[in-house]
TrEMBL record:
UniProt key word Disulfide bond: yes
Gene3D superfamilies, A to Z: Ribonuclease T2-like (3.90.730.10)
TM spans (from-to): 47-74
GO CC aspect terms: endoplasmic reticulum; ER body; extracellular region; vacuole
Name of the protein this chain belongs to: Ribonuclease T2, active site-containing protein
Keywords: Disulfide bond, Endonuclease, Hydrolase, Lyase, Membrane, Nuclease, Signal, Transmembrane, Transmembrane helix
Residues of the active site: H142, E200, H204
InterPro entries: Ribonuclease_T2_eukaryotic (IPR033697), RNase_T2-like (IPR001568), RNase_T2-like_sf (IPR036430), RNase_T2_His_AS_1 (IPR018188)
Annotated GO MF terms: hydrolase activity; ribonuclease T2 activity; RNA binding
Lineage, top ranks: Eukaryota, Viridiplantae, Streptophyta, Embryophyta, Tracheophyta
Keyword tRNA processing (UniProt): no
Pfam short name (any one): Ribonuclease_T2
């Protein structure tokens, strides 16, 4: 049952801790307890004092002292190093009031694998598109993104590079609910190519750490949010089931989600098929409206899985594949 704050109260168990406003189920992490979060902003402030040498020769009265103090004050500058929003990286600002730009809200991006996989031209062991009958037939996680109200977002903020070991206890859940659907390696913020998880946590997660905590907690927070707002269940129960022949009104899909979660989702389409559903949250994880609008036509399809399979069951990457309807 959804509570007034939009959270499903029955999700909170003795295995849960309230983390960043949402219940965290630690059983996902094999009992691993999230480390104490580092709430401190990474902000280094360097103060540079410029020498101001006033001409003192003509100062003969006490009335000149306030003028001297004013000259000293104006002559001082602060050099503040902050994370740049929008493009990422570090920006050197000279200002007396410079602050790291604080993000406004979260978007939870969920993808519909059959639509994403329909654009794949090759198969490989890492892609969940290629799991045959075990390919995902539910919405899976794309990412949890911190966004600004003006429609832009920060990316590649300061933080450690992705470390697989940190999230090893979550692998089972991540493989199932946050798999990559691509055979290409994803770019990271450190000039390398890596896993989809590395891409997401470095590009988006680092900018969310003031709320979610760092790597492990970013993934755990996202998985728990995904379970709390079960878009697949809501759509299937409302009759929006995968079909290669039906078209559904986009407004109906939107309303079903709105009725369940009290927020309008952003729908993203690819060639008339639903590809993503995005839900937006305040920083305390209560729901809110997204800034960006849906881009779907009035009627959309929710395709069934058209699985890509590795030839002969081999798990070697980038083999040729057979493409067929799984029905
Ligand atoms: P974004 O910045 O939108 O979070 O990341 C999308 C990038 O991750 C794309 O460049 C894409 O190549 C890569 N990627 C890897 N796996 C996936 C996947 O399963 N879904 C999506 N949407 N992007 C993926």
């Amino acid at each position: 049952v959804a509570g007034e704050d939009g959270l499903r109260k029955e999700e909170i168990s003795e295995n849960s801790v309230v983390h960043g406003g949402i219940p965290i189920d630690n059983t996902l992490g094999n009992g691993y307890r999230p480390e104490k979060m580092d709430w401190e902003r990474r902000r280094r402030v360097k103060i540079m004092w410029y020498m101001v040498v006033p001409q003192l020769g003509n100062i003969t009265t006490m009335a000149s002292i306030p003028i001297l103090l004013l000259i000293l004050l104006v002559g001082s500058l602060y050099s503040v190093e902050v994370n740049g929003g929008g493009g990422g990286g570090t920006v050197e600002l000279v200002s007396t009031v410079a602050e790291q730009r604080v993000f406004d809200y979260f978007a939870l991006a969920l993808q519909w694998p059959p639509t994403y996989c329909s654009k794949s031209t090759k198969c490989c062991s890492q892609s969940a598109c290629c799991r045959g009958a075990n390919s995902p037939s539910v919405f899976t996680i794309h990412g949890l993104w911190p966004d600004y109200n003006d429609g832009s977002w920060p990316s590649c903020c300061s933080g450690s590079a992705f470390d697989e070991v940190e999230i090893s206890t979550l692998f089972g859940a991540l493989e199932q609910y946050w798999p990559t659907l691509s055979c290409s390696k994803s770019s990271t913020c450190h000039g390398k190519k890596g896993l989809f998880w590395a891409h997401e946590v470095e590009k988006h997660g680092t900018c969310a750490s003031s709320v979610t905590g760092e790597e492990y907690n970013y993934f755990l927070t996202t998985i728990n949010l995904y379970f709390t707002y079960n878009v697949t269940e809501v759509l299937f129960e409302a009759g929006y089931v995968p079909s290669n022949s039906e078209k559904y009104p986009a407004g109906g899909i939107s309303s079903a989600i709105e009725n369940a979660f009290h927020t309008t989702p952003q729908l993203i389409c690819l060639n008339g098929a639903l590809e993503e559903v995005r839900l937006c949250f305040n920083k305390d994880f209560t729901v809110r409206e997204c800034v960006a609008k849906s881009d779907c036509p009035d009627y959309v399809s929710l395709p069934e899985f058209a699985s890509l399979e590795l030839n002969g069951g081999t798990t070697t990457a980038d083999r040729s594949f057979s493409y067929h309807e799984s029905s």
